[in-house]
Amino acid sequence: MTIHAQPCAVPSTVSPDGVLRERGQREVFCGLTGIVWLHRKIQDAFFLVVGSRTCAHLIQSAAGVMIFAEPRFATAIMEERDLAGLVDANDELDRIVTQLLARRPEIKLLFLVGSCPSEVIKLDLSRAALRLSQRFSPGVRVLNYSGSGIETTFTQGEDACLASLVPVLPAADRGARPSLLVVGALADVVEDQFRRTFTALGIDQVSFLPPRRSSELPAIGPETRVLLAQPFLGDTARALEERGCRRIPAPFPLGGEGTALWLAAAAEAFGVSRAHVDRTIAPLKARAERALARYRAQLAGKRVFLFPDSQIEIPLARFLAREIGMELVEVGTPYLHRDHLAAELKLLPQDVLLSEGQDVERQLDRCRAARPDLVVCGLGLANPLEAEGLTTKWSIELIFTPIQGFEQAGDLAELFARPLLRQTRLAV
Amino acid sequence: MQLSVWTYEGPPHIGAMRIATAMRDVHYVLHAPQGDTYADLLFTMIERRDRRPPVTYTTFQARDLGGDTADLLQSAVRAAYDRFQPQAMIVGASCTAELIQDDPGGLAQALRLPIPVIPLELPAYQRKENWGASETFYRIVRALAASSADGSPRREKETGARPVCNLLGPTALGFRHRDDLAEVTRQVVELGIEINVVAPWNATPADLARLPLADFNIVLYPEIAATAAQWLQRQFGQPYTRTIPIGVTATREFIAEVAQLAGVDAAPVLARTESRLPWYSRSVDSTYLTGKRVFIFGDATHAVAAARVATQELGFEVVGLGTYSREFAREIREAAAIYGVEPLITDDYLEVEARVGELRPELVLGTQMERHIAKRLGVPCAVISSPCHVQDFPARYSPQMGFEGANVLFDTWVHPLMMGLEEHLLGMFREDHEFADHAPSHLGAAPAAPASPPVRVVEPVTSTELAWASDAERELTKIPFFVRGKARRNTERFARERNVNLITLETLYDAKAHFGR
Ligand code: SF4
Prior knowledge:
- The complex is a heterodimer of chains A (428) and B (517).
- Chain A is of the alpha/beta class.
- Chain A has three domains: 30-152, Nitrogenase molybdenum iron protein domain (Rossmann fold, 3-Layer(aba) Sandwich), CATH 3.40.50; 179-277, Rossmann fold; 292-427, Nitrogenase molybdenum iron protein domain (Rossmann fold, 3-Layer(aba) Sandwich), CATH 3.40.50.1980.
- Helices cover 44% and strands 16% of the residues of chain A.
- Chain A is built from 17 helices and 15 strands.
- In chain A, the strands form three sheets. A seven-stranded mixed beta sheet of chain A has the order 1-2-13-12-11-14-15, sandwiched between helices.
- Chain B has 517 residues and is an alpha/beta fold.
- In chain B, 45% of the residues lie in helices and 12% in strands.
- Chain B is built from 21 helices and 15 strands.
- Chain B has helices spanning 12-22, 39-46, 69-84, 95-100, 104-109, 129-149, 177-190, 205-209, 222-236, 248-262, 267-272, 277-282, 300-313, 329-339, 349-359, 368-377, 402-414, 420-428, 470-477, 481-497, 505-515; strands at residues 2-4, 26-31, 55-57, 88-93, 117-119, 164-168, 194-199, 216-219, 293-298, 317-323, 343-345, 363-366, 381-383, 467-468, 502-503.
- A five-stranded parallel beta sheet of chain B has the order 11-10-9-12-13, with helices on both faces. A four-stranded parallel beta sheet of chain B has the order 3-2-4-5, sandwiched between helices.
- In chain B, helix 2 links the parallel strand 2 (26-31) and strand 3 (55-57).
- Chains A and B meet through helix 2, strand 4, helix 3, helix 4 and helix 5 of A and strand 1, helix 2, helix 3, helix 4 and helix 16 of B.
- Strand 4 of chain A pairs antiparallel with strand 1 of chain B, so a sheet runs across the interface.
- Bound molecules: iron/sulfur cluster.
- Iron/sulfur cluster (SF4) sits between chains A (30, 32, 51-52, 54-55, 58, 115-117, 148-149) and B (33, 35-36, 95-96).
């Protein structure tokens, strides 16, 4: 048999900044996946994907078929005849939206979510959203964004969703007091904790995006300071800045250190005295450190390899290296937002290997060669790597679990400790 | 466009993956955007496979759409060939790539790799997973079996040589395929028949080339293998089996059919092989199963088989029968006619939910979707068909087919039901506080009163003029929760038919006398 030993046509390059950039096969979800958590976060919103059977299947598979309640998402599955004529596709979409809203009268905000097929056939969902908004106003507002895999990777779907909300946020009154807008979906419990801490710091004008209900859209303006709670919100931040808001640069609230720096950055922007910040934060941070201590004992010195998944990898790596003492073998991210991650990158160990994008087979080769103690990876890779004798942690859990803030620092570390602990327990 | 909340089947390329993943030494290059890689987790998480599916995705992005998606595909094919060294490759498009019309199959063949490269055309906007699996299996069989046997009839058999068959159908991510295969294999071997090739399960392309050597084919899952079997029959004159060995009677018929195709005597095997189901079903404890109203939904093969087992082997009454696979609507219609029920052919989960709500069965035999519907409505349920869940890949041996499969059916369908005497005690002593509706029971909790957010619980339409007197209402609460809905519905129907506006204790018992249990 002849073997065609061709050089691989998708090169990877190490750029001058030392980041390995790859453009091969990516083993990541598309932005539609964000619907799985966003539809629970915004309680009166509905997400209608305009896509294919694949899109419907992706969401249901990523959600692990959670049918405990009728979900506030669905897919308008395009069929052969929708591809033939776009006018008809629009008529069909109107019919489906009408049907849907009749069934779910409690829905106040409807997102039309674009997919690869809707984008490739150039179905204009922004015009559709406008048209449907007019038809169903004032009861229902209709917005659109793209969660397509040709445009967005996993958490970028949330970014696109939140960015689509920015234009409809009400304008803050002229001369309004400075307010803080925390951006990025957080677990309700985490949000409540942060709100209490901001109050204790003396920052009382605090709102969150996304809000829990669409009637609670925060007002924004030049006096609004934006604090990103997630590292994947590039478009949302830009849209907010275009409306005059100012972003507070900060690391992300993962771990005791990250949370303390994040809160301190906000406090500084609001002119809270350093002393008051320290007084307020110190006991919380100390408690987080206490919670982390036992995991540090289990995890320090262990070598961890992170596959690209949610863009949360860089803050996570910072946490694992600095607060848990783990050694970073490789830190992959689907996309490296240098600006938003500036504070994080400074805190990372100098010699860390960062990779952006993916060529999954080559990355697996590197991972196998390095034989790390723990691999953080997606659901498609975890069991096969376990079968090869590596220990893994599914990255999706980092998105579906409350991990931000002081009180969750221990929980976050525990997620990494558990697979290793399990290895030591099992004798089969 | 079709509004879909949950889907029973994935797109057709998932079906192709089920074939490729079941096989060895095959690689599938799928022209698809990155999000489509989610499909790997179906196999690695739900089925707990210890290897990644043999699939390379091109993961093209918007910026590639300008022109070099074709290059991307070719380099992906070449890289996959170099890395995995498969014996054969299949190449196709997912829904998005179908729209950009790159002709992946043609592009791959243009590379002139020294192995068979089989193009797949799976129209993603018309077809679904099972069809995709069937079509893929057929294409692969056709490409590989034809090339080897050059259309010549199967080998001449020496007199006295053992009859030989192929076993067709088991795939990755199939409902109990692993165990069905073991069970059927045992049965076939007992008949003294040699198994030539099992496919696609664990088969290599080289194995498929040997398919023509068998005397006949055993088709375990027509949804997957009927098309390929029909082609093999046309091409090589191999007859194939039609009986699906689910349930005791069907297993006996299957053994007889296989024996007849093989020209062997089934009698000795039929005489010694037995299932426990017939005796378990006749034992007195099972009398409480009599006439249990059962709703059945699944792929057509499993649904039709379940209906037969339910009625003939367990003494249930089929009140609803349906399938999500339109390709097999005819089979379901025919079966529904036998049981005198309205066939339900739909892939709309909400429609199925509504039907279960209307019929108020005492047992649901369905897929994971129906399990959720049943849970919500507080009806016992057993899973009989794909789509599957991680629980449908049990560690223990748990076939659906063959005599052992019949034992499994008895256990898994009967255990969710209330046991005989327990049911009586519950009926007799409603006021025992430990029998309260939400007291723990092996049935699980009673349906939580209107779940929130309000799911569309399908309540019988209560006409506004109809009222319940308070003593009748109280009496109703003394009826166990799992039949209360039926009692209420029957009584209201009884009242309405007689223009009774106020339901009293007397009406309740008049209705009971009228309808029976
Ligand atoms: S990658 Fe594209 S086609 Fe695939 S599920 Fe995501 S949006 Fe749908």
